[in-house]
Amino acid sequence: MTMKKRILAALMALAMLGAFSGCSNTGNGGSASGGSDSDTIRIGGLAPLTGDAASYGVAVNNGIQMAVEDINANGGIDGKQIKYIYYDEKGDTTEATNAYNKLVQDDKVVAIIGDVTTKPTLAVAQTSQQDNIPIITATATAAEVTLTGPNIFRACFTDPFQGELMASYASEKLGATKVAVLSDMADDYSSGIAEAFVAKAKELGMEVVADEKYQDGDVDFKSQLTNIKGQNPDVLFLPVYYEDLRLISAQAKEVGVTAQLCGADGWDSVLTDNFDSSVLNGGVFCSQYSTESTDERVQNFISTYKEKYEMDPNMFAVLAYDATNMMAQAISDAGSTDSQAIIDAMAALEYDGLTGHMTFDADRNPQKSAVIVSIQDDTYKFVENYDPEA
Amino acid sequence: MDFLTQIINGLGQGSIYALVALGYSMVYGITQLINFAHGDIIMVGAYTTYVMLIMAGTPLWAAILAAVLFCAVVGVIIEQVAYQRLLNKNAPRISLLITAIGVSMLLQNLYQLIFKSDAKSVSNVLPSFPIPVGPLEISSVTLITIVTSVLVMLLLQILVKKTRIGKAMRATSEDAGAAKLMGISSRNTIAFTFAIGSGLAAIGAVLYCGAYPQITPYMGSMLGLKAFVAAVLGGIGSIPGAMIGGILIGVAESLTKALGWSQITDAVVFGILILVLLVKPAGLLGRNIKEKV
Amino acid sequence: MTKSKKTGRIPKSKLLSYAVNAGLLLVFYFLFFALIANGTINRYSSGIMTTMFINIILTVSLNLVSGFLGQLVLGHAGFMSVGAYTAALFTLYSGLPITIAFPISIVLAGVMAAVFGVIIGVPALRLRGDYLAIITLGFGEIIRVIILACDFTGGAKGLRGIPTILPKGSDATSLALAKYSYVFWLAVITVVVIWAFVRSRHGRAVIAIREDEIAAEASGIHTTYYKLFAFVMAAFFAGVAGSVYAHHIGVLDPGKFNFDYSVEILLMAVLGGLGSITGSIIAAVALTILPEFLRGFEDYRMLIYAVILIIVMLFKPSGLMGQREFSLSGLAARLTAKKRKGE
Questions:
Q1: Are residues A171 and A146 in the same domain?
Q2: What is the mean pLDDT of chain C?
Q3: Is there a contact between A3 and C329 if contact means CB atoms under 8 Å apart?
Q4: Which residues of chain A make contact with C1, given a CB cutoff of 8 A?
Q5: Cα–Cα distance for residue pair A50/C299, rounded to 1 Å
Q6: In whole angstroms, how far apart are CA A375 and each of A211, A280, A364, A388, C258?
Q7: What are the chain C neighbours of B273 within 8 Å (beta carbons)?
Q8: A4 lies in a domain?
Q9: Is residue C18 part of a domain?
Q10: Is C142 on the interface with B (CB under 8 A)?
């Protein structure tokens, strides 16, 4: 009984070989040049459709699909229909890389919309450097994502941008002098914004009386909130996602925290059935768009989305819708499906979307103004457009 | 004063751990099985509460009843389908543990498929208002949680010590073979234990919904793990032990966070577990297990 | 099993089968090398192959502890993360060119994971069975929390921009070939070393401990030593796998190395058969490729896994291969035996 087990591996591998070469077709396609037939343009999507981050991924995927349907219904991109091919990456960096390779090599997409959360997006961005394929992420917020290479764009705000924005807002508009922060240490979105907020708050002369953290999956925040209450801050900044926010705000009230609550765009879609939002009344956050917008397209989007998916659209869906349209417009502007041409068109893009008028800066982040939204009586109220004076 | 508040915060959370730990402890006492799926039974209970209370709009008592019954049934089904065969065959414990992990995965993914992965809100399950106690204010929810779990523990203690079925449970856990010879049906006893343990988890689930009004398909895994730590800490197989273990873990967590070390809360909890296992492997109130040769 | 005398001379038939296997291994290696080089296997497929070999290393090494030593470990991903971070930090900050830094990082990763194996193993291995499983789970979680809480590991952000294993600017095909070569031979080394260990005196001591710890101790086997040895060896290879993983993906996410991932590795080892190295290899290969074919059924994938796991445990708790090993000569022997019977 020797190392013949290797042989088995060899046999297995031979069997696989058939399967692999079967699905890889002509093989070494590589770049995006061969990506369009006469009448379709293939665009790839990556999102976590199962697993912990599934609720974000599903919303993004819905947003993209709606955009694709709208574009196709209106004649496609210069007469060519978009074919949207997407894979679930389960919120996992390995799966994301594999799925990316499949999109580029097997499906020969010309551009990719994705990924959704930061780490898989970073992994994909890094791998994509070999292909120079145009990528726009709707929702990955870490600053490093677009810095990975000139082919990566994003439709949302970055973490530092939001943190600094809300620090300015707290100081300038809310008149805060003492601020406290509670953030999720295991989440780079949350900790990234918190870090920027704290730095900016100090720079603006506010006193950061508490910088509390919690862990991914925690449900009890009373200890941290009791500490915060003891410091009596003017503003409690909560750069967290809506699911944690519901628990935190309820417990903040229970503990007796009286500070003004504020947060970032993760707050969007905090309002939901059976959530007693009175605990959040008066809370403000910066958002990418306002559901109260008078823009007809926004209202259309909201009603169509509700009808189609039987749930309220959230920021993820909205950003995904915009990201898809940006990519479509860039392909149209480029007049070809050549990777570099699309990337150049993207960099020069000027686009009016659901989240407002935007252009890309040198780091391929969107330049657009933020909307401050407050929560009043179970609704989102538009407060103002806010651009901090530099 | 803040310190006292922190302790009470810890007691509230600890009581929920304790209720869950009771189930672990009882099942382990009789079958030597770490029922990994026990945490997910809480999730099942929480979703049952959600379905009854929110979707069907029944009153609270009906929701509690439904949750307890449903969980007990699910518990017994799991035992009959997944564990019984292995328990009968005296299969290696490693197989049992792996099966339990499989059941846990199955429940989580089944519920994710049915209810989707986004969190469901269940606000105001229990009446919430502050109760002044001396200089402190205690939330009614915390008080209800603590009182309920103490009551449940006492009831359970009576059940195990005074009733016939309780005696059968103790006999089976002491020596399953001898118990069988005395005419005790170990199959029924084990099934009953699963039913009771799962029913307790359902009560824990309702209290959980009261304290942390949001549920997800994955909510049970961390909760279950910590409750298991509590059961081991208190001495697995011991009812008061599970209670004490749960409360200690709750308070330890709360104080760690209060001291500003929230980053390492989980490390502290598992650190306690490791220390206990190394220093006093049977736990605080557990009996030493003899090694059978 | 034919057993040579202690003189260490190897019987001829054995020598022959070594040669056959080594030959087949080389054929296999160059075949796939060629297929990647000419593009028949594209980067998507070769990427999955890399994952597959990483999983082989992880599964076989876990099998050493859980299969041959018989101790359930639920924190294997923790050792992998130690290796991954060690290797990534080394290549990121050592300043050496990547072609030199990467091989060093593999060794470093293994050594560091082994060190953690000792630190964790010494207290943990005093326990057994369920308690050992839980304590390794606890240690796995602690490692994750510490990585999250430290600054030099990047905390929640993880590590980014970990260089690929060839200098910047290398073309995609050479990169794929380099990855394939590394991971293939690392997997071979892992399998051979563990296989040789299991067949050695020390390995038999380890198996004796699995069969009956008390009896083993009574017959003079230093159980603590052998348990620790197997445990540390498994940790070492998990660290090696971590190093390759870090440089394959380029981004490290502390959340990746959680309990679920440890369970996934365990699942492969269990399905293949605890105590069967070939079983582990088959299961690792199958469970890496299967999901790729199940794309489109993602919603049901984990559900299917769970059901399979339960069913296997209920009806074939020993897994696919049990404790048997697949071997060509065994197969040949069986086939000829059948033929003879048939005649």
A1: no
A2: 87
A3: no
A4: 1
A5: 6
A6: 24, 7, 31, 21, 36
A7: 134-135, 138
A8: no
A9: no
A10: yes
Using CA atoms, how far apart are residues A44 and C194, in angstroms rounded to an integer?
Answer: 42
User: CA angle, A173 as apex, A387 and A316 as ends, to 5°?
Assistant: 50
Cis bond leading into A107, ω under 30°? Answer: no
Q: Does B5 fall in a domain? A: no
Q: Do B293 and C214 touch (CB under 8 A)?
A: yes
Domain CATH number, residue A214: 3.40.50.2300
- Give residues 35 to 74 of A whose Cβ lies within 8 Å of C: 49-50
pTM for this entry: 0.86
Domain assignment of residue B112, yes or no: yes
Tokens of C302: 């984990």
Indicate whether A116 belongs to any domain.
yes
Which among C124, C131, C303 is the nearest to B110, CB-wise? C303
Chain B (23-42) residues lying within 8 Å, Cβ to Cβ, of chain C: 32, 34
Q: Cβ–Cβ of A6/C47 closer than 8 Å?
A: no
Number of domains forming the structure of chain B? 1
In the DSSP assignment, the letter for residue B184 is -
Domain count, chain A: 2
Domain that holds residue B143: 15-219
User: Whole domain around residue A244: which residue ranges?
Assistant: 159-287+371-386
B254-273 residue pLDDT tens: 999 988 888 888 889 988 88
Residues 64-123, chain A, touching B (beta carbon < 8 A)? none
Reported as type and span, the H/E element at residue B70 is: helix B60-78
Asked, for residue A109, whether it belongs to a domain, the answer is yes
Distance CA B56, CA B64 (A): 13
Coil/strand/helix, residue B76: helix
Q: Is residue C14 part of a domain?
A: no
A370, A288 Cβ separation under 8 angstroms: yes
For residue A226, give Cα distances in angstroms to A184, A210, A213, A233: 17, 11, 13, 12
Residues of B in contact with A51 (CB under 8 A): 117
DSSP class of B286: P
Interface check A223 vs B, CB under 8 A: yes
Residues A33 and A147 in one domain: yes
pLDDT of residue A35: 44
Q: Measure in Å the smallest separation between the Cα of C126 and chain A Cα atoms.
A: 30
Domain count, chain C: 1
Q: What angle do CA B148, B6, B153 make, to 5 degrees?
A: 20
Which residue bears the tokens 């190897």?
A: C10
- What are the tens digits of pLDDT across the range A254-275? 888 999 999 998 898 888 888 8
Query: Residues A247-270, buried b or exposed e (16+ Cβ, 10 A)?
Result: bbbbbbbbbebebbbbbbbbbbbb
Cβ contact C76:C268 at 8 Å: no
Model ipTM?
Answer: 0.87
Please indicate, yes or no, whether residues A73 and A134 belong to a single structural domain of this protein: yes
Q: Give A34's DSSP letter.
A: G
- Shared domain for A204 and A259, answered yes or no, is yes
Distance between CA atoms of residues A354 and C274, nearest Å: 55
Query: Does residue A2 sit within a domain?
Result: no
**B-chain residue closest to A59, CA distance:** B118
Pairing of strands A260-263, A379-386: unpaired
State the nearest Cα–Cα gap between A266 and chain B, in angstroms: 14
* Nearest residue in C to B218, CA atom: C260
**Does B282 reach chain C within 8 Å, measured CB to CB?**
no
DSSP A71-87: HHHTTTBTTBEEEEEEE
Q: Is C8 a domain residue?
A: no
Q: How many residues does chain B have?
A: 293
Do the Cβ atoms of B263 and A273 come within 8 Å?
A: no
Q: Which domain holds residue C323?
A: 25-342
What pLDDT is attached to residue A39?
A: 81
